[in-house]
Design brief:
four-stranded mixed β-sheet, eleven-stranded mixed β-sheet, 17 strands, globular, alpha/beta
């Protein structure tokens, strides 16, 4: 078990809205994905989504799964899925939607019976258990510890107890900041979630400051180098090169002084020193185009910082995404970056779907429909197998290229992007 404690806001999801509590007393957001993104950007370590769709309402349940996909795609932290889980298929749908883990409600009849089945199928690391009555865990403790990886206690926090070896996330309905921190001192408690965390999510970094001062281990941005270890320019500052963490596109160059450096580390928001205004500059403070830190590196001479960030909106004051858009000179060259090549080919395929061209083989496949695309994909897969039995390496390269092309046609037909694929692979 990792000793680091976690702050985990949750979303009560139904009718594609985020509600205030399990009782669905009030709607707090018409855009749950945007709410999840706000939680993530505020420093949340994970997010739990509870599907509150009425049992038996398949339409609302499917709507919740689609929204869950959007949430998983919008955030940079792991998402856990719970609610409306009563069979193997429900676990599969949550994991396919992008959830790192799916939780069984042990208060529901039948969920104990499927624990072994789903743990065997997906692995115990993908399975968690929600419970409100400690006796439910005690009565089945051997299976719980063997077949699951985490617990969420949704009950009166004053009555919390567990004899399980598994880490427990404590659900806090009503609390205060002192009580929240005290809860995390319990060695059995891995994290806190619930309505109190949701209402006060903007305090997450403040809570982490308190936990750090109390010696409570947690996940947070920490600097391996102090400001004194970095080499400054003649103005006492360090230049910062800023990249998009997903694409590595260079967005801008700015400068940090000591206060900006320490503020960036503490808040997780890129903060610079404006030389023109002679003041601290939190990127996005006026435009809302914040930059959230993903990683910071220094170069071999310790005199430049490379920041990889999640950019909200545009990085440039002109409205351009990157400040580097004025071409000085360029040569024709063949792109070698695999992701850029795949994105480029995929973009052409998508364009053919929207803007057909006479004589285009891609349009021929789209016109024939998904069965023809699948037939060709199967044929190309077989060609890879045959080519692999031959000594000529080029033949394999050719056949794999054919397969990837037809696979991208299928992706475009089904509205699946490369980002969807790479996000899924990175989660694994």
């Amino acid at each position: 078990m990792n000793d680091n404690k976690k702050f985990i806001p949750c979303i009560y999801l139904c009718e594609n809205k985020a509600w205030s509590d399990f009782k669905k007393s009030d709607v707090i957001s018409e855009d749950p994905a945007a709410l999840a993104e706000a939680y993530s950007d505020a420093g949340a370590d994970e997010i739990i989504v509870f599907d509150l769709s009425p049992e038996g309402d398949d339409k609302l349940h499917e709507d919740s799964l689609h929204m869950l996909q959007k949430i998983c795609k919008a955030v940079d932290v792991e998402v856990m899925g719970a609610g409306n889980v009563k069979r193997m298929e429900d676990i599969k749908k949550l994991i396919y939607a992008g959830c790192k883990k799916a939780f069984l409600n042990y208060s529901k009849e039948g969920n104990r019976e499927i624990l072994k089945e789903v743990s065997s199928k997906f692995g115990k690391d993908k399975i968690g258990i929600c419970y409100s009555n400690p006796q439910d865990i005690t009565d089945d403790i051997e299976n719980v510890d063997e077949l699951a990886s985490e617990l969420i206690f949704i009950g009166d926090e004053g009555k919390f107890k567990t004899n399980s070896l598994l880490p427990v996330v404590l659900f806090l309905e009503t609390c205060d900041d002192n009580g929240l921190v005290e809860s995390l001192k319990n060695e059995k408690v891995q994290g806190v979630t619930g309505t109190y965390v949701n209402k006060n999510y903007a305090k997450i970094n403040d809570w982490k400051d308190v936990c750090k001062s109390e010696g409570i281990p947690l996940f947070r941005l920490e600097a391996a180098f102090s400001w004194d270890q970095l080499k400054k320019n003649s103005d006492g500052m360090v230049p910062v090169v800023v990249q998009d963490y997903r694409t590595d596109q260079v967005l801008m160059v700015a400068y940090m002084n000591e206060e900006a450096y320490n503020t960036t580390i503490k808040t997780g928001k890129m903060t610079y020193y404006s030389r023109s205004r002679n003041e601290l500059w939190i990127k996005g403070e006026t435009s809302s185009h914040y930059q959230y830190v993903k990683s910071l590196y220094t170069d071999c001479d310790y005199d430049t910082i490379l920041a990889k960030v999640k950019q909200i909106g545009a990085a440039c004051h002109t409205g351009k995404y990157s400040c580097f858009f004025n071409e000085i000179a360029s040569k024709n060259y063949t792109e070698k970056n695999p992701q850029k090549v795949l994105d480029s080919v995929y973009d052409v395929i998508k364009d053919r779907k929207v803007n057909p061209r006479e004589g285009s083989y891609t349009n021929y496949l789209f016109n024939k429909g998904v069965d023809k695309i699948l037939k060709k994909l199967g044929e190309e897969a077989t060609e890879i197998v045959i080519a692999s039995k031959n000594p000529e390496e080029k033949e394999i390269v050719y056949e794999i290229s054919d397969f990837l092309y037809h696979m991208m046609v299928l992706m475009a037909e089904k509205n699946v992007s490369w980002e969807d694929i790479t996000d899924e692979l990175s989660r694994r």
